[in-house]
Specification:
It is a single chain. The protein has about 190 residues and is an alpha/beta fold. The protein has one domain: 3-Layer(aba) Sandwich (Rossmann fold). It contains seven helices and nine strands, in the order βαβββαββαβαβααβα. A five-stranded parallel sheet has the order 2-7-1-8-9, sandwiched between helices. The protein has a four-stranded mixed sheet with strand order 4-3-6-5. A hairpin with a 2-residue loop joins strand 5 and strand 6. Helix 1 crosses helix 7. The longest helix is centred in the C-terminal third of the chain and has 16 residues. The model has no long low-confidence stretch (mean pLDDT about 95). Bound molecules: adenosine-5'-diphosphate (ADP) and guanosine-5'-monophosphate. Adenosine-5'-diphosphate (ADP) binds next to helix 1 and helix 5.
Length: about 190
């Protein structure tokens, strides 16, 4: 059988609290064949998060080594922690012809746009600012000072929406998950 054609990488970005993880989890429940990259981070796990599932939780030294060894496709500092995408797994899955999704911040999306120009960049936007604040606060996973840092980052991310190929507004998780699957040509 002929080898599968290499797939186009899809990047999903958007401000913290907009609903990226919720949309992706919903989408993957129906379509587990969509491969979601697991990032490395220096952030501490939230209750219920497990090493190797939501993230690879690493120390600062371990993160330094990943960077020094060129093992990250992209990485960024976000609201006081570092996050990065392990390169090898992403390239392997793309080569295998699988639909691959990265859920990363704006700085990471910009790096992917530079290094993998054929990528599809999708921006997830909130219905409005007040709803974003409600979602981020309502999630209840961060103290007030961290929420403030994330909202400051959100203002910058929202201003960069036009850099993306497509914007999806997260009013309904079901609708956005369907639209994302359509963009990724997964049926
Ligand atoms: P992100 O991954 O972008 O930081 P989350 O997926 O953690 O955001 O979602 C933040 C909060 O918003 C969660 O409490 C989630 O349940 C809620 N949420 C996500 N999408 C919607 C939506 N369409 N309508 C209402 N609440 C939502
Ligand atoms: P959280 O701490 O809420 O899980 O994630 C904070 C931010 O980091 C989110 O915008 C998320 O998309 C982003 N992020 C997660 N993994 C990566 C990554 O590997 N690289 C980059 N650049 N950002 C990431």
């Amino acid at each position: 059988m002929a080898a599968e054609a290499r797939q186009r990488l899809t990047v999903l970005s958007g401000p913290s609290g907009v609903g990226k993880s919720t949309v992706v989890a919903h989408m993957r429940k129906a379509h587990p064949e969509v491969w979601l990259s697991v990032s490395a981070t220096t952030r501490k796990p939230r209750p219920g998060e497990r090493h190797g599932v939501q993230y690879f939780f690493v120390t600062d030294d371990e993160f330094d080594k990943l960077v020094a060894n060129g093992e990250l496709l992209e990485w960024a500092e976000f609201a006081g922690n570092r996050y990065g995408t392990p390169r090898a797994a992403v390239l392997d899955r793309l080569d295998a012809g699988e639909p691959v999704l990265l859920e990363i911040d704006l700085q990471g999306a910009r790096q992917v746009r530079e290094s993998m120009g054929e990528s599809r960049l999708v921006f997830l936007a909130p219905p409005d600012w007040d709803e974003l604040v409600r979602r981020l606060t309502g999630r209840g996973t961060e103290p007030a000072d961290v929420i403030e840092r994330r909202l400051a980052a959100a203002r910058i991310e929202l201003a960069a929406e036009s850099e993306f190929d497509t914007t999806l507004v997260n009013t309904s998780v079901e609708d956005v998950a369907r639209e994302l699957l359509a963009l990724m040509e997964v049926s």
